[in-house]
Design brief:
single chain, mainly alpha, elongated
């Protein structure tokens, strides 16, 4: 939601800039229009209005440049929004990853799959490598994955995709446990404040267990 709000904020800023140019542009165009409408005026009057014409033309030129800048700023904003939508489309595959994981669990057994889930959750949350004691379960996992030509790196990518929320997927990288704890204190929605305390305790418990 934060990213979407940022896009809206940027768009509203550009809209406000464009709106602020509307009145002065209309005013200068009206000046030129009035001068040109009175085309039967004497040459002397045209000379007197020369400065008005130059001034109005100069202002119109500046306003057009500013409007061009706004248009140029809209292009990258639009591209970013479209890229966000493209990335979001990948999330539709999370259910299929869940189906795949169910099949892996079936072949590993409940206990081994539980250990594998813990291992990868810990690795992602702490951003630390596997432990020595993980090797037993990773070897079991490799044997299952080899039969469908998937390695551990690919499995981890799929595992990350499955556990990724919409918000996390819009970021360049997933947050660590410490970052999540920090964010909980800084930017937790007021409307969901009753979740804050149990979530904080949950995150702190995970950090303690992972250590």
């Amino acid at each position: 939601m934060e990213i979407v709000n940022n896009y809206y904020n940027e768009l509203n800023i550009l809209k406000a800039k464009d709106l602020s140019l509307k009145k002065p542009l209309t005013t200068k165009l009206d000046i030129l229009h009035d001068i040109l409408e009175n085309s039967e005026e004497t040459e002397e009057n045209w000379v007197k209005q020369k400065d008005d014409i130059k001034g109005a033309s100069k202002h119109i030129s500046l306003i057009v440049e500013q409007k061009n800048e706004i248009i140029n700023d809209i292009f990258p904003l639009t591209e970013s929004a479209l890229e966000l939508l493209k990335r979001k489309e990948i999330l539709q595959y999370r259910d299929k990853v869940g189906d795949f994981n169910n099949e892996v669990e079936k072949r590993l057994g409940f206990q081994s799959w539980k250990e594998i889930s813990t291992i990868f959750n810990r690795k992602i949350n702490t951003n630390k490598n596997f432990r020595r004691e993980d090797e037993k379960y990773l070897t079991e996992l490799k044997k299952v994955l080899e039969k469908v030509n998937i390695d551990l790196t690919e499995f981890e990518l799929l595992f990350r995709l499955k556990r990724t929320s919409n918000f996390e997927f819009h970021q360049d990288k997933e947050k660590t446990l410490d970052q999540e704890i920090n964010d909980l204190e800084i930017s937790f929605p007021k409307a969901l404040k009753y979740y804050k305390s149990p979530l904080r305790k949950l995150l702190l418990a995970l950090r303690m267990w992972y250590n």
